[in-house]
Write a structure and sequence with these properties.
Helix 4 packs antiparallel against helix 5 and helix 4 (90-104) packs across helix 6. The chain has helices at residues 22-36, 44-47, 55-74, 90-104, 107-117, 120-139. The chain is mainly α.
Length: 140
């Protein structure tokens, strides 16, 4: 018995954005990254303590902490394009895929995405921040 293997490049794969949640989430993260690009270093673990109980403050704080700490979690500065840009970078595709897998409860995909790029010590905090952003973002 033989099987066919179809190799599809991740870079050329069609981008499927859920018009209700994913494109606005990506634009939101791009905007927060643009605003915070010149701010100083923030520790990934200590940053979670700064999050507020107020929903609006918490959403903004979680988004800011996420984009400021993403380079620490990935080991390099992520590429995030301008708001409204039609192209998406590999880092943006990865982040949206991770947000989607966390939102839908796809543990296998989220584990794969995290293990492929994030060191073990940073995974829990990154997941916490991304869930906080996506949960508060989908409530609006």
């Amino acid at each position: 018995m033989t099987s066919a293997i179809c190799r599809v490049s991740f870079e050329r794969a069609p981008v499927s954005f859920d018009a209700v949640s994913e494109r606005p989430l990506l634009d939101h993260l791009r905007d927060v990254a643009r605003i915070n690009r010149c701010k100083g270093y923030i520790d990934l673990f200590g940053a979670c303590a700064a999050l507020s109980g107020n929903r609006d403050v918490a959403r903004h704080a979680a988004s800011e902490v996420l984009v400021r700490c993403l380079s620490q979690a990935l080991g390099r500065r992520p590429v995030l394009y301008r708001v409204g840009e039609t192209e998406t970078s590999f880092d943006e595709k990865w982040l949206i895929a991770l947000a989607r897998s966390l939102k839908t409860g796809d543990k296998c995909s989220s584990a794969f995405l995290l293990q492929s790029r994030v060191p073990k010590h940073a995974r829990r905090t990154l997941v916490f921040l991304l869930r906080r952003v996506t949960d508060s973002f989908s409530q609006n």
